[in-house]
Amino acid sequence: xxxxxxxxxxxxxxxxEDDTHLKLEKTLHIVAQAVDELIVLNTxxxxxxxxxxxxxSDQVDLLIILGGxxxxxxCLNSIAPLATRPIIAILPGGTSNDFSRTLGIPQSLxxxxxxxxxxxxxxxxxxxxxxHYFMNFWxxxxxxxxSENINSDEKKRLGSISYVLSTLxxxxxxxxxxxKIQTTDTELEGDAILLFVLNGRYIGTTQLPIASLSPFDxxxxxxxxRDSNLAxxxxxxxxxxxxxxxxxxxxLEYIQVTALEIMQPIGNKVxxxxxxxxxxxxxxxxxxxxxRMIHVNAL
Length: 299
Hints:
Elements: E1 4-12, H1 20-31, E2 35-43, H2 46-56, E3 62-67, H3 69-79, E4 87-92, H4 98-102, H5 109-118, E5 120-129, E6 132-134, E7 137-141, H6 142-148, H7 152-158, H8 161-171, E8 177-183, E9 187-192, E10 194-198, E11 202-203, E12 206-207, E13 220-225, H9 230-238, E14 252-257, E15 259-264, E16 270-272, E17 275-277, E18 282-295
Parallel strand pairs: 1-2, 1-3, 3-4
Antiparallel strand pairs: 5-6, 5-18, 7-10, 7-16, 8-9, 8-15, 10-13, 11-12, 13-14, 15-18, 16-17
C-alpha cells in the first residue's frame, strides 16, 4: 500500500462544478488513510491554483488534484518547470477526465481515491511547447474548432456527449489547412482537417485505437487526418495493429517522434489538453518520465 508523509489536496471550486462538497465527502476520508499530514486547499481562481502548486511543490511528497482536464493542465504547467516535483494523483472531477483514464484511474471517485492507496507510481512523459506543457495532446484543426463550439449548457446537462454533438456540428464546416512538419528523420507536408501530437490515449472519453500510443515510452505520436471520410476511419482503426507503417496509409499520417517542428500552418489556434492557445508555429519535444504519477494497471 502506498503511503506518504505530506500531501497537498487541491481543488478549484470555480472550475464549473456545483457538487464539489459531495466530491470531497467521497474522497477525503479515503485519501487521508495514505497520508500522515494532508493539506486541503480550495483555490478560487486559476492563478491561486498555480500559486498553490508552486508554493508546495518542494514541501509535499504527493499532489492530489481533484478536477477535470483543465484543472490538471493548470497544475501540470505550474510544476513541470520546477526542479522539485511531487508525485501526482488525479481524482477525476470533470467531464472527460481523459488523462486519468489513460492512467487507468477508475472514474468512480470512491474507487479513484482508493487507487491512491493501492495504485503504483510510474514515470510519465509530458510534451513541451515553448514555455507550455501538455499531458494529453496538442492539436490544431477540427479539435480546436470542436472545443470552441462546445455549448456550456450542453456540457453541464449532457457531460461528455456535448463533445460528440460539438464534433458533429463542426465537421460540416471544417476547412482543410496546409501543414508542414519537420522531424529529425522526415518531413511531412499536405492538407488536413486535423493534426494531433498525442501523449495520452483518450480524447473526449474515447480511447484512440492506436496500439503503440503510450505516455511511458519516451515518444510523442503524430496523427494527421486528411479527411473525415470512411476510409480515414478505417485506417485509424487499422492502427490497432502496431506493424502498420505510415507508408501504408493514404488518408492519415502517423509517426512517432521525440521532437518535431510545426512549420505550417502559422497563426492557427491550438488546443492543448482542452485549453485554447493562440499560437501555432512552434517546436514540440517530449520530456521522458518527467512526472511521477499514480496509475492503476496502465501499462
